[in-house]
Prior knowledge:
Blueprint: E1 3-4, E2 10-13, E3 32-39, E4 42-47, E5 54-58, E6 62-65, E7 67-70, E8 77-80, H1 84-105, H2 109-131, H3 136-156, E9 164-165, E10 168-169, H4 177-196, E11 215-224, E12 232-241, E13 246-247, E14 252-256, E15 272-278, H5 280-284, E16 287-297, E17 313-323, H6 324-333, E18 338-343, E19 345-347, H7 356-362, E20 368-369, E21 376-385, H8 388-394, H9 396-400, E22 404-406, E23 422-432, E24 444-451, E25 473-475, E26 486-493, H10 497-500, E27 504-512, E28 520-529, E29 542-549, H11 560-563, H12 569-574, E30 586-600, H13 607-613, H14 622-628, H15 634-639, H16 641-654, H17 656-673, H18 683-693, H19 699-713, H20 721-728, H21 730-748, H22 753-772, H23 779-791, H24 796-802, H25 805-818, H26 827-842, H27 849-869, H28 873-893, H29 897-929, H30 938-954, H31 957-965, H32 970-990, H33 998-1023, H34 1030-1044, H35 1056-1066, H36 1069-1084, H37 1096-1103, H38 1108-1114, H39 1116-1129, H40 1133-1148, H41 1154-1168, H42 1174-1199, H43 1204-1221, H44 1225-1241, H45 1245-1258, E31 1265-1266, E32 1275-1276, H46 1277-1294, H47 1298-1314, H48 1318-1337, ...
Parallel strand pairs: 15-22, 35-36
Antiparallel strand pairs: 1-3, 2-3, 2-6, 3-4, 4-5, 7-8, 9-10, 11-15, 11-21, 12-13, 12-14, 12-16, 16-17, 17-19, 18-21, 19-20, 23-26, 23-30, 24-25, 24-27, 27-28, 28-29, 29-30, 31-32, 33-34, 33-36, 34-39, 36-37, 37-38, 38-39, 40-41
Amino acid sequence: MWSPTEEEKYGVVICSFRGAVPQGLVLELGETVQILEKCEGWYRGVSIKKPNVKGIFPANYIHLKKAIVSNRGQYETVVPLEDSVVTEVTATLQEWAVLWKQLYVKHKVDLFYKLRHVMNELIDLRRQLLSGHLTQDQVREVKRHLTVRLDWGNEHLGLDLVPRKDFEVVDSDQISVSDLYKMHLSSRHSVQQSTSQVDTIRQRHGEACRLPVPHHFFLSLKSFTYNTIGEDTDVFFSLYDVREGKQISERFMVRLNKNGGPRNPEKIDRMCALFTDLSSKDMKRDLYIVAHVIRIGRMLLNDSKKGPPHLHYRRPYGCAVLSIMDVLQSLSEIKEEKDFVLKVYTCNNENEWCQIHENIIRKSSTKYTAPSSNYGLIISLQLLRGDMEQIRRENPMIFNRGVSVTRKLGFPDVIMPGDIRNDLYLTLEKGDFERGGKSVQKNIEVTMYVLYADGEILKDCISLGSGEPSRSAYHSFVLYHNNSPRWGEIIKLPIPIDRFRGSHLRFEFRHCSTKDKGEKKLFGFAFTPLMRDDGTTLSDDIHELYVYKCDENSTFNNHALYLGLPCCKEDYNGCPNIPSSLIFQRSTKETFSVSTQLSSTKLTQNVDLLALLKWKAYPDRVMDILGRLRHVSGEEIVKFLQDILDTLFVVLDDNTEKYGLLVFQSLVFIINLLRDSKYFHFRPVMDTYIQKHFAGALAYKELIRCLKWYMDRSAELVRQDHIQEAMRALEYLFKFIVQSRILYSRATCGMEEEQFRSSIQELFQSIRFVLSLDSRSSETLIFTQAALLNSFPAIFDELLQMFTVQEVAEFVRGTLGSMPSTVHIGQSMDVVKLQSIARTVDSRLFSFPESRRILLPVVLHHIHLHLRQQKELLICSGILSSIFSIIKTSSLEGDVVEEVEMMVESLLDVLLQTLLTIMSKSQSQEAVRGQRCPQCTAEITGEYVSCLLSLLRQMSDTHFQHLLDNFQSKDELKEFLLKIFCVFRNLMKMSVFPRDWMVMRLLTSNIIVTTVQYLSSALHKNFTETDFDFKVWNSYFSLAVLFINQPSLQLENATPAKRKKILDKYGDMRVMMAYELFSMWQNLGEHKIHFIPGMIGPFLGVTLVPQPEVRNIMIPIFHDMMDWEQRKNGNFKQVEAELIDKLDSLVSEGKGDENYRELFSLLLLEKIEQETWRETGISFVTSVTRLMERLLDYRDCMKGDETENKKIGCTVNLMNFYKSEINKEEMYIRYIHKLCDMHLQAENYTEAAFTLLLYCELLQWEDRPLREFLHYPSQSEWQRKEGLCRKIIHYFNKGKSWEFGIPLCRELAIQYESLYDYQSLSWIRKMEATYYDNIMEQQRLEPEFFRVGFYGRKFPFFLRNKEYVCRGHDYERLEAFQQRMLSEFPQAIAMQHPNHPDDSILQCDAQYLQIYAVTPIPDNIDVLQMDRVPDRIKSFYRVNNIRKFRYDRPFHKGPKDKENEFKSLWIERTTLTLTHSLPGISRWFEVERRELVEVSPLENAIQVVENKNQELRTLISQYQHKQMHGNINLLSMCLNGVIDAAVNGGIARYQEAFFDKDYITKHPGDAEKITQLKELMQEQVHVLGVGLAVHEKFVHPEMRPLHKKLIDQFQMMRSSLYHELPGLDKLSPACSGSSTPRSNVLVSHGPMSPESLKLMHRHSPLNMLGSVRHSSSSLSSHTSSETGNLVILTDSSMGETAEDMYHMQASPSTSSLSSTHSAPSQMINSAPSSARGSPSLPDKYRHSREMMMLLPAHRDRPSSAMYPTAIMENGQPPNFQRALMQQMIGPCKPCSDPNLSVAEKAVPAAPSSWSLDSGTREALPFLSAHVGSILAPPVPPRSLPHGHYSLHFDAFHHQLSDAPPALPARTLRKSPLHPIPASPTSPQSGLDGSNSTLSGSASSGVSSLSESNFGHSSEPPPRTDTMDSVPSQAWNTDEDLETPYLPVRYSLSEPDVLESLKSQPCRSHSAPSGVIPQDTMDPPALPPKPYHSRLPNIENEEGMIIEDDDKHRPLHRKVSQPVSGGKEEQARVAWEHGIGEQ
């Protein structure tokens, strides 16, 4: 059975549970669970993460924790019973874990690693805390570290700041808002500290911690690594101040043996010292650690003879120093010891030994010698901070090592009361001794003893340094041969205090002989007593002692013999008559100096102090002694504090009258001395003294009398120093008074109580008198009053010992009330007054409710005054927050209603006023300077806001009731409401509290919403009916709106845990406020109309808050507004206008969502249904909903990383909506400018111009003034329109759309002319002229157009299920466009067919894109038909102002004729009409209408022939009118193309198809069309005749053979048409002449049978397309970005079979293009159309390019992505297909779309025939691809014998089986291509007159070269490139001029290529008839010469072409690798070489 658990309530999962049992709860490791029931090893409960899901889990998977259960039962809550810090760490780590991973994703790597480190530290610290093994101090420290890290992480992760007190999170309900604010501030402060240094210094608030922190150095000697001395050594360490040139510490001594180890084995690892009590000031001094090394041994190290071995002397050896300044930084940063090596330097001259350390520090290197090696003393240092107790506590290890505490010489900054010390420091300074008849100087050793009065030597009273025990005698070190030694050695004499008096020091001087005996001979002595006769100790000074002669036999047994002698000069002066007959004679020439320094808490060197302590000895001098006490130093006084005080009070008792005032002054002096920070710590000593030792029971009377006397005189005296001193000492004086009275009461059982009380009363009257004096005239009086006020609050506690709380409170009230209440007494006095009040409020007295009731009014009165005057705001706020803090604490225990009432009356209004002033100041300051003045800092605002909130929070219903009832009039109430609403609004607007102070912000909101609920009823009651006040209501509504929109209340953005916490504590305050707002709106009644339309925007903002409940409450208000306006005006135009306006700005700010749109529509339509005005209402709601759709789209586009296209499309859509549907002109203009900016960003200048034109068209040429708008200044309409026109013209110019700019130039010109502004007129006319020049001279590319369909519901509204036509970018081809679209819509799927999609696609939740190219149908046909208009001009009209586009799809209708497919070949033509013409305000427009027509085969033929005729006519007329100069190649090729095609099929196919009797009988209706076709054919023959005549006139002599061939073929063509079309024999004479009939024309130019088509299909280069994608040809990237989407195929790159295409691998860099030389961009024409022209053509040829290429203009080449068309070589079909196309390709001919992406072309399943249903390979291969080519249906083929093709390809394919991939697009062919072999009439005639490269194709623009050209050439023939249909020298000269790249020669002479050449037998290629040459060539004996790319031909003046083989150009860069290793390349080279040799 499941039973509820009693104890097991809370646990942590210690093993993940998968929940694989029925009702199992899935649990992850580390989750916490709340347990509800248990049953046999299982628990049932919930995870804290998902509290709604209950389930069961195994008990052994859970680690139970103790917990507190509240509200037991169904809704019980469980809180773990662990340290709250641990709980917080756990929760925080769980929260961080999620955010931490996101940091990695967002690439914030630095923070990621830092946070990981901090999280690990937290886990570790948490573990320590949970272990339970820490002391209380350690727990505090761990918690401190934890909270610092928690706050640091929260701040860096943007989480909320946690307010804490003593590391615990505070509950905001338990403390006042002011305290909460302070905690936030201190937490923020500690976070900021920790950010710079993760360990923050403890911030203890409210501690009067003026104590300086002492520093200590821990030094440990690790070793003395090169003790090469070989003798024992003593090392002395001390701290030395360089600037003062003296030691500041005792010495630390280490005794080492000769091996460098400690002489005492116990000292190993314990040679350490702690240099204590260094103040902060010391740390700034230039301190050094100095180590002196003294050796103990022979006199001279290197001389064993000097001195006997048994005698050891102390001898100087060396010194080492370390600058503390240098190492302090590194020591401060680390917490442990750090090692340093000190080099030991030796002294060059022993006489300077006492200065060696200074010399080393000063780097006087001549005075010392550096050691040979780098080692020395190795020490470690550590810096410690804190008092000694703390150091002992925190570093027990140091003290366990037996550390020697080494003190400062003298007292530390702070003398601690219990610090007993009695040290005399003696420095052996110097001596001057006689030589004594010796030839050399002496070696002097000084021995010192301390002797007591009885002559006994005191044991262990001499310490050479800490770390070694004291000794009884001291031997100085010996300086060799020196009669004036200087030692400078400091010795400490720790003499017991009882032995000090009467003791003396004796110094004995001996000469240490280095002779054999080595005895030490005594020759003199000196002495000095330690105390003077008057009881003072030896003064701190240098004492020059007399030296007395003596010898070894002298005895010192009777010390009295010499003690009577003077020891020094001062002594001598004291006792002049000394007998000269004594044993000891003074040696007058010899002197000896020592200096002393006393550090004693028991002995004094001060005579005056001694006199006071022994005052009874000098009764007559008491007055003088008391007077002199002021001159005694503070150190001496605090040392003897208790004794002095006792003495003073004894003196007082002795004679009150006489000594009273002096004792009082002395007492005041001592009390004030203790206020000094140095002696501050002696206050406890004073307190203890007063409590325990003070015995002056009568003193109080005199003290009160003196104090009163002082105060009463303050009005008269000018000098008031002593009065001020007494005022400052008030606290301790009162302590003495009260204690004295208590002692007196005890002694007398409470006698004289009344007198005491009255004397105190009188004293207070005096105090009031002092304070009430007008101090403005007297500055000294101000200081007196200030001193009094400062001390005053300190006496309350003393008074409370004697009086009741009420009595003391009355005293205080009277005193505070006596202060002048004007604020003008002077600022300093104001401050003091307020500080005194502040300390009163902070005192214990104020914490009693009974005293508070008395004191509060007077305190509030003063604060009120200051706030009214806006003075001393910071102090006032401090006082207030203290008061609120106390009241909050009291309110938890008792009743504070009365006090709160007082505060509300006194403060509420003035607080509001103050806040308004501060806020307005800070806002204006920000506006003016951008920064706040100190007075209006955020801090002050924060303080006052927290005070106001504290007050409001304490107010209950009754307080609010009283407050509202107390207003005298409605005006007062109105003013109050306006103020409080205004403050609340500012609170939310200015965000007084930082974003991460979530606790503070939520509490603020809670207080505001509660207050507003109280106030709204007053508002409703007083200002609704007759007294309606718009201002108050408006203020209320604005407040409510701001409140609901606060960022801190938007819970949707919070984490789930945080949201739950907030909802549990406060609920959703937005909903509370929304209900309040709604009910108030309903209360308005008929006054609602005042808020229409003003409140629409704000309310709309509220409804956009993503909280469903708020939306449901608020949206119906709009219906209400519409209804009210309808009632008033009969319509709701205002509501409509305002809603639309505001919706735009709010949605663009990121508010609103799809749900809102639906809810808005739903709720309002439901409400409107019942209204009489439902039609207009519904249409309005619908249009707003549609606007919302668009706005949401627009916003999503703008904020996402969307592409320009989407943003532009979205903006256009929204702009049009504003214009057409809701007619909002201003919004419309705004979006015009947004759109224009987007276009400019995307560099769509033409579109930007059209966009601005929309605004321009709204303006008139009038002088109407226009207001400032957007970025336009206020100006006249004319000026704005002019400025716009100029800008638009500028953009048209940048977009090269000069034709659009010209009309605007004219419009401006008319305006300028009418104003006689000739300067501007001249400028604009010049501009216009420039544009005409630009049209004629500048190159412009014709864009492609693409139709895009967007299908599916996932597209934004403005695209969904619509089709558009888009104007492509320059050089952009279909594949690139498709890629771009797919990258813009990454989720979209590209549709693979052109059919219109069905409903399933339109309604699906996906995105489908359907893209294909379309052909523009120009409107302006007239221009295009004019003969003499240059192509540059026509080109513009072909692709601009286009509204209609065409797309053709060929298909077969009826049975297909195998012989002649043209009979059944129909065209399905789709015409798309757009909403606007392109170009326009966007690069794409929606399709408005689509029409579908079918074109019959006959109509198609008519169009084909007509277009070709037109093309020929244009070209011929250009030559006739000399528009084309020089080169006639264009005409040659065009004629060749047409005639050749006609002879070999072409027109004949049409004859077969349509002039057939069967056809005519079957189609009687087509008679007229047939006639038309016949006429066109006749016309063509006529035009060709004229063309040949022109050709003959201009033809170059070298080209005569071609001309002859053309005439022959023309005769054949004419004769073939002759019987059909009579009248063709009347030819122009130029065309007649003998012609050699061409026996075997290249087959591919002839007609094809379906069978041959099959073959062709197999080997067609189209099949190479698949490889284009993978081609790794080394094409340069230079052109890849600039050229269009061309795919070039080398003529020879055909796979062996159709299948080859799919298996081909990319062969790296085997294409014949090298990466080192790609064609420059300006040479590569992206459009293979005449219009596009090419920079490489001379202008005069460019416009007739179309003819020369025999290809239609690009715009005529639609093709669907589904019907691959032939891939052209740069726009031409591969050679063997070209002829097929010649006849039918014309400017307007249809074909399949030029669309297919390369990948699709490789798909075998794509239908490759005209008919859609034919999946066979019978289709014409070149109809199956795209990229910029158009194919018309082929000319009907003539039947050919089978086998033509196979033979043709056989000749090639053995070399091509490994052909490299086809060349990718976009590059000029600089490398040689295979020439197609010549006709087979003679195998050698590889390039004779009927050169096949030229014979049937229009691909080569090279002059025909006769056989003889090659016969004698030893070079391989120059290459006739077939790159582009451009005359060769046009290419070459242009290349000379324009290309920055020089042609590169490609060499095939690389060894591997040559090898393969040799090894592979070559066959001369035969012509395609299949005749294989009889004599196959042997491989050449020598490798062929490197094959050069075509070198530039230089055209001479007569237009002759000079072959320039020898002028080799320098190469720009080295060719990186052989051009080609492919077999076809080798074959070609070999073949050409063969021809060359022949």
